[in-house]
Design brief:
36% helix; alpha+beta; two-stranded antiparallel ribbon; 139 residues; 24% strand
């Protein structure tokens, strides 16, 4: 836990985290021994402050890449299984948006917003997005 707190503090820019930044608890996802060359196991960290968690996630979106010992570090919020499953339904749609070079983002719990032609579009399910792509001639 101390390692995670110190590492996050060292890689973030001044002002991203509050002066009271702390981690309530942290642990690695259970698994066997780490295999050299394999993807490292995930670490779950519970922040003491939701504000610090949100600030770190916003900051990470603007950074190019975080690394530790040559390994790329990804930071994601931890969602319930139901929320993860709902968000996973958008995976094919997201691939199409990426290939069409259209900016998008997910909103909690599982809504998608798209910026296209200077306008923001909100979608409640992947079928709405597919229909919109076809109407715009991007499908």
């Amino acid at each position: 836990m101390n390692f995670i707190r110190e590492w996050i503090t060292s890689v973030t820019e001044t002002g991203v985290l509050s002066a009271m930044f702390d981690i309530e608890r942290a642990h690695r996802i259970p698994g066997g021994k780490s295999i050299p060359g394999a993807t490292p196991r995930a670490i779950l960290a519970k922040f003491l402050s939701q504000r610090d968690r949100d600030s770190l996630l916003r900051w990470k979106r603007t950074e190019q890449e975080l690394t530790y010992n040559g390994n790329s570090i990804q930071i994601y919020p931890d969602f319930s299984r139901d929320t993860q499953m709902k968000r996973r339904e958008y995976s094919e749609v997201k691939k199409r948006l990426i290939s069409a070079n259209i900016k998008y983002s997910m909103m909690f719990p599982s809504k998608l917003w798209v910026i296209y032609g200077g306008k923001v579009q909100f979608f409640n399910n992947p079928i709405e997005v597919l229909n919109w792509l076809e109407r715009e001639g991007l499908g």
